[in-house]
Amino acid sequence: MPQPTPHIDSAVIIGGGIFGVSTAAQLTRMGVAVTLINDGPLANGASGRSLAWLNTARRRSLPYHRLRQAGMERYRVLSDAYPNADWLCFGGGLTWDMEGPKNEISEVYRYERNLGYEAHLLSGEEVAHKVPGVNGAAVTETGAILNPNEGWVDLPALVSILAEEINSAGGKIITDAGKATPAVTEGRATGARCDDGRNFEGDVVLLATGAAVPAMAATHGIKIGDGTPIAVLVETQPVDHPLRAVLNTPFVAVRRTRNGAFYLDSDWPEEEVTQRADGGYDLPDWVAEKLIDEARKVLNPAPDLSVINVHFGPKPIPGDGDPVFGELAELPGCFVAFSHSGATLGLIMGELLAEEMALGIRHSMLEPFRPERFAD
Question: For the FAD dependent oxidoreductase domain, which residue ranges apply (predicted)?
């Protein structure tokens, strides 16, 4: 049976992160003429400063789990196409909680096993023997969960590969375009308008501008709940170390980078960020140093680490924590992609959104995540 024929000829994508570029690549594969517009270089937003942990760990709704599971499967297929890639690694994921009444490891382990998600509950001693590079003595008495199917991706590298595909297929990628907003004609999105006066026409439009999506929707009277914080990602110098797994521990999350450095983050530094009048951000020096100290506690051997960069910026998180995908009911022709789990969902959502935009279908997997759930 032949593939369905798109009912559109052209599309405009606003946003050059993983959602925008992945959707654009899928649309070009379907024969749709694509124009992608970004306000700076590609991956200059959340995609460029993400831990990019590929997972569906912990407890979340079954529809969200299934969507993330599909996302991880797409990366497994991608790893077969790029078997020697240094920007994609499936070294597993390891997580543990603080000891005390808020420790959920036992419940999370049972929840994951009941979903068929591979999980192993390990003691600290077992972690030391089975997970290279981790200090088993740092694991609390309740134990740690090893999810061996998890990994990480370097999103800027992946965005670059997809951008090459878009260009080769005749798509247009316009960077450093300044702010762009949907153009509306008779109540329908018909392209994009840039602040410099340029206009780009398209049969459909995708807003994939990360944390800016709720505000952009609000200019059209459309509510999308927003819980976006300012996140901190500390980058260290490269070191020789055996760690391959992504670590999610009580005070620091850790992963290697493609050049052998470490990325470190956690939720607690978000409370220490202040924004300057010029729009920039400040962070007390002790915060990055504490992340370094916490990383040394969970790593074995404990490496000598120094900070070479601290990345700041909004971390897109919808108001209810669940992703927001699909066409805006109040603005036909305009689709949105707004989610915290950009890395895990990057490939699958490019696929599903492209089909919704080009074929006019509504994927059942996306029904719980439609933007109209925020309407009064």
Answer: 11-355
